[in-house]
Amino acid sequence: MREKTAKRGHPKFARPNYGRVKRVGSAWRRPRGIDSKQRVALLYAGAKPRIGYGTPKPLQGLHPSGVVEKIVSRPGDVKAIKANYGSGAFAARIASGVGGKKRAEIRKVAHELGVRVLN
């Protein structure tokens, strides 16, 4: 099982002048202006995304609950998760193209085997 380490938080990266000007949305845009306070990293202007805010390597790609997701498209895939990996560190996510009948069957098999289904 993977090492249990908490993900580090980071500030909300707000677009320059968000909250000051009504037409400016909250979605991040890189500050490019020659006089931009955020571009020159003045503290009151808000944080910019940088490589140091990244998720630690062992935690990349994990579900927020700390388990590794495996895509499942048929009941046999759930059995393979149980047989090859055990149930604690891995969870099943049903593929988007799976229909209702097979989805219900996958959920039933996962419940019997004790494999967690995320969706």
Protein model, in words:
With 119 residues, this protein is α+β, with helices and mostly antiparallel strands. It folds into 2 domains: 46 residues, no CATH class; 57 residues, no CATH class. 21% of the residues lie in helices and 8% in strands. It is built from 2 helices and 2 strands. A two-stranded parallel ribbon has the order 1-2. Helix 1 links the parallel strand 1 and strand 2. The model has no long low-confidence stretch (mean pLDDT 86).
Features:
alpha+beta; 119 residues; 2 strands; elongated
**N-to-C CA distance:** 22 Å
For the CA atoms, what is the radius of gyration?
21 Å
Number of strands: 2
Give the strand order of the largest sheet, numbering strands 1, 2, ... along the chain.
1-2
Could you estimate the helical fraction of the residues in percent?
10-25%
Please render the helix and strand layout as text.
Layout: E1 68-72, H1 75-85, E2 90-94, H2 100-113
Parallel strand pairs: 1-2
Helix pairs in contact: 1-2
Summarize this, please?
The chain contains two helices and two strands. It has helices spanning 75-85, 100-113; strands at residues 68-72, 90-94.
